[in-house]
Write a structure and sequence with these properties.
Shape: globular
Distance between the termini: 26 Å
Strand order of the largest sheet: 1-2-3-4-5-7-6
Order of helices and strands: HEHEEEHEHEE
Largest sheet: 7 strands, mixed
Radius of gyration: 15 Å
Strand content: 25-35%
Number of strands: 7
Number of helices: 4
Helix content: 25-40%
């Protein structure tokens, strides 16, 4: 295990955590740059929908530095991964896989055995992660206009 993995922590945080908000802002800024027509989201949906008991917001830290974020939203019959992002300078170190595993653990702890997510063709590394970690492509389940691929996994 390298030094980064040894000092890596993934913790549930509140929407008020400034490190979480910084990561979410960076996530949306990156999407806006990578999507040819930009990316917009209603301000109120940034984090409020992922707070207990409706979901959980997870922050990845390396030491004290915020390195990533992800949210899990609890639906009626499944949980849904949202806002998964690792800072560019920390990519390629297995943090995305670690974060996804923790999201799956949180889903099970909340009583869900099915987890779903969507991604865009403009985020090919995300699709590769989901393909490599046992997610199966499914038809569109949420009508997200930015998504091009939908996945699920039975936990």
């Amino acid at each position: 295990m390298d030094r980064d993995q040894q000092s890596t922590r993934i913790e549930a945080v509140s929407a008020a955590d400034p490190r979480a908000q910084e990561c979410i802002d960076a996530y949306f800024a990156e999407l806006n740059e990578r999507f040819p027509d930009g990316f917009t989201v209603a301000e109120e949906t940034k984090v409020a929908e992922f707070l207990p008991p409706s979901g959980v917001l997870l922050l990845v830290r390396i030491g004290e530095e915020a390195a990533g974020i992800a949210a899990l939203k609890f639906r009626e019959d499944y949980s849904e991964v949202k806002r998964m992002w690792i800072a560019p300078e920390h990519r390629g170190r297995g943090l995305g896989r670690m974060l996804l595993s923790r999201l799956e653990d949180e889903s099970i702890a909340a009583g869900f055995r099915l987890i779903r997510l969507d991604t865009s063709k403009y985020l090919p590394e995300a699709g590769r992660l989901y393909d490599r970690t046992g997610y199966t492509r499914i038809p569109d389940y949420n009508g997200n206009p930015y998504a091009h691929a939908w996945y699920e996994k039975t936990l």
